[in-house]
């Protein structure tokens, strides 16, 4: 017994080092399986508040560019509104809408790591829940991962865990959108079968296969493509429409039917087992 | 004694704020974010309790982790260089470092820069190693390691010449 105690006293620093390492590894491993730490993330604690203060100062420097971008989007939407065909002129029945949109602002952006998370200034009190889709006026941005009372973190598409259903515009071939961690303006579309005719410059949009994003949200254009190692699927490099380094205003999409869809899927799965 | 504690607390807070508000968003060339908080370990007094030093280093890394949503990677990397610091010092400053009279004042500039570079490279190697954690991305790892180390070293040298500690 004496010897054991002596051993610990003699190597107390190494023991402490091991102990702290185990804590660190545990936190890292646990959040790897849950994507991001539930307890420690920048939506929680003081960090959300600090980023909010810092952002409320720095956001003034880009007001003009940001206003231009929003006016451009409005112009595009106005054009669509004025040129719509008469059959669409029926007033929207608010009881039947499927998607609700909430506006928000980015208070912390990140795109240089391999697992990037963005913090936004909306939380549970504003109706934001995990697994809602996040887009900007130009295209897709990510999926809400964690929420606190007034803030939320978003798993960016620039995240090696990210996996989003996407397809080539005007076709029904869909694949998964992933990121290899290299360049912040290029993501990868995989699992597109070899027989699909591809042209550089084709537009990639979201597919309707998930309950998170509605169909037809723009993502980017094909920059380069080649076959993968098995020679049966394409690996496509997609140049993003979004400038991920320069983002301010965002929209959160809430699929009002999501619970029903997921519930149904769960039941079907259970029925099959 | 107390003033040293106060200096360290102020340093801790300022370095965290500087790191999360400024240097985490530098994105030089699109991916280089220098980690200036390592200089805390360079400045931390030598003859202090090692256990306390490691706990402080771990919490420094962990606070930065919370802000940058990086799990506990900063904490692990910082803890490891805190644990290895005596070893690195012995390597850089020779046996002199064991004596009571040792202080940074009677070391050469080259020795100090070597010491700082060792801290930075060891830290970045562990950090990017855990962050990327795949051998298929070894080139990405090397690119990030080399570029970020150079910029971190540069910024840290600027900091250390701007705010050179009076004591020690």
Structure description:
Chain A is α+β, with helices and mostly antiparallel strands and 273 residues long. Chain A contains five helices and twelve strands. Chain A has helices at 2-10, 12-33, 45-58, 63-82, 258-272; strands at residues 99-108, 115-120, 133-135, 140-147, 152-159, 164-168, 174-178, 186-193, 203-206, 218-227, 233-240, 249-255. In chain A, a hairpin with a 5-residue loop joins strand 10 and strand 11. The longest helix of chain A is centred in the first third of the chain and has 22 residues, at 12-33. Chain A is globular and about 90 Å long. Chain A starts with a helix and ends with a helix. In chain A, 31% of the residues are buried. Chain B has one domain (2-162). Chain B contains six helices and no strands. Chain B has helices spanning 2-21, 39-43, 50-68, 73-93, 109-132, 138-162. The longest helix of chain B is centred in the last third of the chain and has 25 residues, at 138-162. Chain B is globular, with a radius of gyration of 16 Å. The interface between A and B is large, with 41 and 34 residues.
In short:
The complex is a heterodimer of chains A (273) and B (168). Chain A is built from five helices and twelve strands. Chain A has helices at residues 2-10, 12-33, 45-58, 63-82, 258-272, and strands at residues 99-108, 115-120, 133-135, 140-147, 152-159, 164-168, 174-178, 186-193, 203-206, 218-227, 233-240, 249-255.
